[in-house]
Amino acid sequence: MSYQYPIDETWTKEEIIDVVNFFSLIEKAYEKTISRSDLIAMYRNFKEIVPSKSEEKKLFSEFEQTSGYSSYHVVKKARESNENKIKM
């Protein structure tokens, strides 16, 4: 991993940890298999920190530009899937 996660300096330490954990799970969806329920729970935590859709899109875009991983597509697949595991 030679990139940084997008974070906001105004977030608390706990919020930064939650956002980093969310993006880490996105990585794992591409590299391994993840639990659909874990991703949905982490996304809910992420949305409590970043309730704005425009801010979410900005962070997702920044992450995709640096990592090559699409958070949007992982979340979309988790929402539409009935499977317990997600793999991109």
TrEMBL record:
SUPFAM superfamilies: BH2638-like
Source superkingdom: Bacteria
InterPro entries the UniProt entry points to: BH2638-like_sf, UPF0223
Signal peptide: none
One of the Pfam families matching this protein, by short name: UPF0223
Family, as annotated: Belongs to the UPF0223 family.
Name of the protein described by the UniProt record: UPF0223 protein CIL05_08290
